[in-house]
Design goal:
Strand content: under 5%
Shape: elongated
Oligomer: single chain
Largest sheet: none
Radius of gyration: 25 Å
Number of helices: 4
Number of domains: 1
Structural class: mainly alpha
Helix content: over 70%
Number of strands: 0
Distance between the termini: 77 Å
């Protein structure tokens, strides 16, 4: 099994938080705390759901986007 280096992940998160504006960096650091689990878990489900909906919408666009619009022949109007 691979060895997980939690310290390396913490350093990376701290580095990313340092590059963000203070409000976003503070939020990221707060989100990393164990007491923020009740925020992290539902938000992770929402992010996964958002990704699934994005894939479904792209599939629908590719399916319906390739359909050719119905064109009525002008000769049909001449017959009536």
């Amino acid at each position: 099994m691979p060895h997980h280096d939690g310290g390396k992940l913490d350093r990376k998160i701290h580095q990313i938080a340092g590059k963000l504006p203070e409000s976003a960096g503070g939020f990221l650091r707060w989100l990393k705390e164990p007491s923020s689990r009740w925020v992290r878990v539902p938000s992770s489900y929402l992010i996964i759901l958002n990704g699934l909906l994005a894939v479904v919408s792209l599939a629908a666009l590719s399916t319906f986007g390739s359909a050719k619009p119905a064109v009525i022949e002008p000769s049909l109007f001449a017959l009536s």
